[in-house]
Design a protein that fits this description.
The structure holds three protein chains of three kinds. Chain A contains four helices and eight strands. Chain A is an alpha+beta fold. In chain A, the strands form two sheets. In chain A, strands 1-8-3-6 form a four-stranded antiparallel beta sheet. In chain A, strand 4 (about 60) and strand 5 (about 70-75) form a beta hairpin. By secondary structure, chain B is α/β, with parallel strands linked by helices. In chain B, about 15% of the residues lie in helices and about 30% in strands. Chain B has five helices and 15 strands. Chain B is globular, with a radius of gyration of 18 Å. In chain C, strands 3-2-8-9-10-11-1-12 form an eight-stranded mixed beta sheet, sandwiched between helices. Chain C has a four-stranded antiparallel beta sheet with strand order 7-6-14-13, with no helix packed on it. Classes of the chains: A alpha+beta, B alpha/beta, C alpha+beta. The interface of B and C includes residues 37 and 253 of B.
């Protein structure tokens, strides 16, 4: 648990958050592993957990009828997977599949969102951090949409 | 190794070069290896320079040299077939000749980057003009610090030089990261725009020299990300592209603001063109 | 541009002479005898056109021009002045930097090719008769671009080499002239073999002539002339000064580079774009515009190829085309490119303005866009969105 504590406390997402709160998160955290090919999140499932990736690569993808799954983006070491637990309806919007063997820290999103409702100062700090992640992903996605390498 | 200045014959006249090999890189991109018909024409060039390639009676195109600058007996070009002229170039056929003028232009700052860490960011066919630079750094490894190569392509089958990318990654203090905008089911690599690779770099970017080449939009957002990561504006280099007819500064077509891309570029320091990049329809 | 010396200084350095008007014909003949093809002003298609002249009869005696934005008319004068016009549509660029020229030819030999003939054709040396100050300045500007930059254009070099220049001081300005504000005229400073000032005063139709080179002086030995008096020189100097004062247009070139670089989004560009037809007339008549394009052609067998070079213009859609599209598609972007290059970027590229104030672009624009007005509008207007 000591290693977990250090990893969580030093991760950019948690830096600056109330120490008591961070300790609480650590106490609800666990090491998890996913074998390559397994799904970590599935579209439509209740979203109560988010993950801090320690090893391996995760593909965020969409399953479409009559087509192979479409990989929208990949996330890897140091990145956070999952934010649907933060906002209603608290449901995963995409599939997340382990591309290779993935080792991650699972964090209790349900616990965190309850605490955010109780303590709005904490809530604001958490939402700010996730807003930054979303903004970065949105910007990257928009650039991906431009399809800059295509022959016009 | 001292980079000698290229010996040019008359820059206005195409010299006949024989097509030795045509290698298919992707469904629409080919690498041509050319050797001069005239022995007197030693082929020296700086990484980042380009030639004007002429197909008899069809037309002439500016193409970046994509080969190894240490091999003086040949010139190598990676060409994407997008129109009539490029199509006839890639279909010239082994044993036939192509006219070559050049090399022209200002290349990558191989001298200024000595002793520094180097980050290479390439998008699509932009890896082609950067490949001579990568060869140069790897062949003169002790003259440079760490090397990071970030490469983004449209999809896995559009990636250039895949075998070489794997070879380069095995060099000491060299990291190669590849991503695609659209992955397929069998792609186990990164999916996302090339800027998403920055965070996986083992190199502390601040203080390194960055060399960037790809579509202009891509170079703009990469440069923004490099600056956010602490790379100085004077340490970022971009390779620009505009219409070219003469390559010697007379036809006026390649002007970009006050710069002639054929003479003052195609490689520019970011600070030189920073304000121009912001201008729409410049 | 070199600093201008006063007319008096010039007089003190060279001995001026007076030629009777009838000696012009003899001058032409003397040059022809020395092997020059003399190119001078002629009347054609309602305009002054530089063409071969063999005698004084070929010159446009007694004609002048009326120029306004988008308007050019020849009018009869009341005297028989030979250089009483200002400028025709074409400049000496047509000879030095030809509109259409074959660069080389090649023949196919199996899978290879052989360049056949790429020597710029030697032609008989030329004498330009009637070169105005702005035109001399324009030639100097093109020399800088085509001879003195990283590469040397062999065609321009060959056309330019050995050209015998007979300059002519302007004694009259058209309404479209603004060389005085550009520092390029109307006085011719140097760069000529001979310079003439046409005098039409009480002493009759004469020319004040001064030499600028040994070969200029040598040609004069074949003519009848008398030394000029101080009065003659005064008369000549005064008429050139009058031409300067006559100019109604000007460009304030103070900080013009920064002005144009920093006003990329000025609303005035939209106003111009609404009028500009992108017809490219301005670039064709401009004496400093140098852009060209190349075209590769074959014969019907495909075994013989030629590369041709032709004038091109940044006003065309295809000028900035790379795969995917043109960088400058709108008329606004193209007009802005031309004007910014001419007045601003040129300074960074070649150390001087690209504009010599000849006013041809104003006269020959079919919708009468006036470059001097556009600069002024950017300097002062547009603050409230008013162009």
């Amino acid at each position: 648990m000591e290693t977990l504590e250090r990893i969580i406390a030093e991760h950019p997402f948690f830096i600056g958050l109330d120490e008591g709160f961070t300790n609480l998160m650590v106490s609800c955290a666990s090491n998890v592993r996913f074998k390559a090919g397994n799904y970590i999140l599935k579209e439509g499932d209740p979203a109560n957990t988010f993950y801090l990736i320690r090893e391996g690569k995760v593909a965020v993808e969409v399953l479409a009828p009559q087509r192979k799954p479409i990989i929208i983006s990949t996330l890897s070491v140091g990145e956070i997977l999952g934010w649907s637990w933060l906002l209603p309806p608290f449901q995963s919007k995409f599939h997340a599949r382990a591309v290779d063997d993935v080792h991650a820290i699972a964090l209790d999103g349900k616990c965190l969102r309850t605490k955010c409702e109780e303590n709005h100062d904490l809530g604001y700090e958490v939402v700010k951090r996730f807003a930054l992640i979303m903004e970065q992903r949105l910007e990257a996605t928009r650039l991906q949409l431009l399809d800059v390498y295509a022959v016009k | 190794m001292i980079m000698a200045t290229a010996i040019t014959t008359d820059p206005m006249l195409p010299q006949p070069y024989s097509v030795q090999e045509v290698a298919r890189e992707t469904p629409d991109t080919f690498t041509l290896t050319l050797k001069p018909e005239n022995e007197v024409d030693r082929r020296l060039f700086q990484p980042g320079q380009f030639s004007m390639l002429w197909v008899f009676g069809v037309g002439e195109l500016p193409i970046s040299i994509s080969g190894d600058p240490a091999l003086h007996d040949r010139l190598v070009y990676t060409v994407r077939s997008v129109g009539q002229a490029t199509h006839s170039l890639v279909n010239r056929g082994v044993g036939n000749d192509v006219g070559v003028r050049g090399p022209f232009g200002a290349g990558w700052p191989v001298a200024a980057a000595r002793g520094r860490d180097v980050i290479v960011v390439a998008g699509g066919i932009g890896l082609a003009p950067l490949r001579p630079l990568i060869y140069h750094v790897l062949q003169n490894r002790k003259d440079y610090g760490r090397l990071v190569i970030l490469y983004g392509g449209r999809s896995p089958r559009d990636l250039l030089y895949r075998k070489e990318l794997a070879t380069w990654a095995r060099n000491r203090e060299t990291q190669v990261l590849v991503t695609v905008d659209y992955g397929g089911l069998s792609w186990r690599g990164h999916v996302g725009v090339v800027t998403t690779l920055f965070k996986y770099s083992r190199l502390q970017l601040a203080g390194s020299v960055a060399m960037v080449c790809g579509p202009e939009i891509m170079m703009r957002f990469v440069t923004r990300e490099l600056e956010t990561q602490g790379v100085s504006r004077d340490d970022i280099y971009l390779s620009m592209e505009r219409n070219m007819k003469c390559a010697v500064g007379f036809c006026g077509h390649c002007q970009y603001g006050p710069h002639f891309i054929c003479k003052d570029g195609p490689v520019f320091r970011y600070e030189q063109i920073r304000k121009l990049l912001e201008k729409y329809e410049l | 541009m070199a600093a201008r010396e006063s007319a008096e200084d010039r007089v003190a350095q060279r001995s001026e002479h007076i030629l009777g008007a009838d000696q012009l014909g003899k001058l032409i003949v003397a040059l022809v005898r020395k092997g020059y093809a003399v190119i001078g002003p002629t009347l054609r298609d309602g305009a002054i056109v530089y063409d071969n002249v063999e005698s004084a009869e070929d010159l446009p005696a007694g004609w002048t021009d009326e120029q306004e934005p988008g308007r050019y008319r020849l009018k009869r004068r009341e005297d028989e002045a030979l250089f009483g016009y200002a400028l025709g549509p074409q400049s000496w660029k047509s000879y030095l930097h030809p509109a259409e020229v074959r660069l080389w030819s090649a023949e196919r030999q199996g899978g290879t090719f052989r360049i056949l003939d790429n020597e710029a054709k030697p032609e008989c040396p030329r004498a330009f008769l009637g070169v105005r100050a702005c035109e001399l300045a324009a030639i100097e500007v093109q020399d800088r671009v085509l001879l003195k930059d990283k590469y040397c254009d062999p065609i321009y070099d060959q056309q330019r080499r050995g050209v015998f220049i007979i300059a002519v001081q302007c004694t009259r300005a058209a309404s479209t002239c603004f060389c005085a504000s550009m520092g390029t005229g109307p006085r011719v400073p140097d760069g000529f073999d001979l310079v003439l000032t046409e005098l039409l005063g009480s002493k009759g139709h004469r020319f004040l002539v001064a030499t600028g080179s040994d070969r200029g002086a040598e040609v004069l030995t074949e003519l009848e002339m008398v030394p000029a008096t101080g009065e003659d020189c005064q008369e000549a100097g005064a008429s050139v000064e009058a031409a300067a004062r006559q100019q109604v247009r000007s460009i304030d070139t103070t900080g013009i580079k920064e002005l144009l670089y920093e006003n990329f989004e000025h609303p005035r560009w939209d106003y111009v774009a609404n009028r500009c037809l992108t017809c490219a007339n301005c670039t064709m008549v401009c004496p400093t515009c140098f852009c060209t394009s190349v075209e590769d052609v074959t014969d019907i067998t495909g075994d013989y190829a030629e590369r041709w070079r032709r004038w091109d213009s940044c006003f065309t859609q295809s000028f900035s085309y790379i795969h995917g599209g043109s960088a400058r598609t709108s008329a606004k972007a193209r007009y802005r490119q031309w004007m910014t290059h001419k007045l601003a970027s040129w300074i960074d590229q070649f150390g001087s303005s690209g504009c010599v104030g000849c006013g041809r672009c104003i006269t020959w624009c079919p919708v009468g866009i006036d470059i001097t007005e556009e600069v002024q509008a950017i300097r002062e207007g547009g603050k409230n969105g008013n162009p």
